[in-house]
Design brief:
This protein is an alpha/beta fold. Helix content is 51%, strand content 15%.
């Protein structure tokens, strides 16, 4: 029988899922992905973390709970640093220990990524592959093929998203981590509502650049959270091509609260709405806020047009 590896559909799954899924599938391993987030998954996740934990972490634990009896191993990444002299949220570093302590009977594939300690992406997956008794050559081939598949998909997604900037519709960028943007409970209701209102949503996970330091200048030169710096760089690069910005976060995310405050203070001449989602979020309240924000953008655009006509 094939080995079954479970991957929770939460947190950094949404950033690296193409690489991870294809890596295991290229090794002829069965991959089981938990379903889209639903109320049951959220309720189950609440049992394993303290109330003060962010909603994104609660959702992750709910996905782990779903998979606990359905696979031979769980793939739980431990990610500390993806760029030297920078950090990611401590939750990503703590995931392995949190899952191990909450689900002691589950076998966990320990994938470490810490550039500061010279533990790179390939190194982590080599250890995972060896734990599953594959040879170095099999692992390397599986990784190289998966990396090609990941690069191809990212280029396609970026092209499709940038094509949306050419529309004449109202355009609003949604600035958030991929695990919020694409989660069925957090980001999807916002994206679906904007689509329903014929507003084009430009998603921040299209940003792929080696020039993050340059692109985020003017907002922050000292922030050391890698993923938040990428969001700032996205705003700086694309803000002049959209009509408004939605900052989307889950309660109570520490890095987001600081980074979003910097954005609100430093990014001028464009409407910004800061939306925070928790596990008690109301669709009605969310829709009301989105309606108001769209109305504000339309009013400002109309005023801008009148000002231009008056000066001509």
């Amino acid at each position: 029988m094939k080995i079954k590896v479970g991957i929770p559909r939460a947190l950094l799954y949404y950033k690296y899922h193409t690489l991870w899924q294809n890596f295991f599938q290229n090794l002829n391993v069965d991959v089981i992905i938990s379903p889209k987030t639903n109320k049951q998954i959220i309720d189950n996740g609440l049992k394993y973390v303290v109330d003060e934990a962010c909603l994104s972490l609660k959702i992750f634990m709910g996905h782990v709970d779903y998979l606990k009896d359905k696979c031979d191993y769980l793939f739980i990444p431990r990610i500390a640093c993806v760029k030297k002299q920078e950090k990611v949220c401590t939750n990503f570093l703590a995931l392995y220990d949190l899952v191990r302590n909450s689900f002691p009977k589950i076998k966990i594939l320990n994938y470490n990524l810490d550039i500061e300690k010279n533990e790179e992406e390939l190194d982590g997956l080599i250890k995972v592959g060896k734990e599953l008794n594959f040879s170095y050559l099999e692992i390397l081939r599986a990784y190289e093929k998966a990396k090609q598949q990941e690069n191809k998909e990212r280029k396609l997604c970026k092209m499709l998203e940038e094509n949306k900037l050419k529309t004449d519709n109202l355009k609003i960028m949604i600035v958030s981590h991929p695990y919020n943007l694409h989660d069925e409970f957090i980001g999807k209701p916002i994206i679906n509502y904007l689509k329903q209102e014929h507003v084009t949503a430009i998603l921040s996970d299209i940003y792929e650049s080696q020039d993050v330091e340059i692109d985020c200048q003017g907002i922050s030169d000292t922030l050391y959270w890698t993923y938040n710096k990428q969001l700032m760089a996205f705003i700086k690069k694309y803000k002049d091509k959209v009509d408004g910005i939605i900052l989307l976060s889950t309660f109570p995310c520490g890095p987001d609260s600081l980074a979003n405050e910097l954005i609100i203070r430093k990014v001028k001449n464009i409407p910004i709405s800061y939306i925070t989602i928790d596990n008690n979020a109301s669709d009605t309240g969310l829709i009301t806020r989105l309606e108001s924000f769209i109305d504000i953008i339309k009013i400002q655009k109309e005023r801008s047009k009148k000002h231009v006509r008056a000066n001509n």
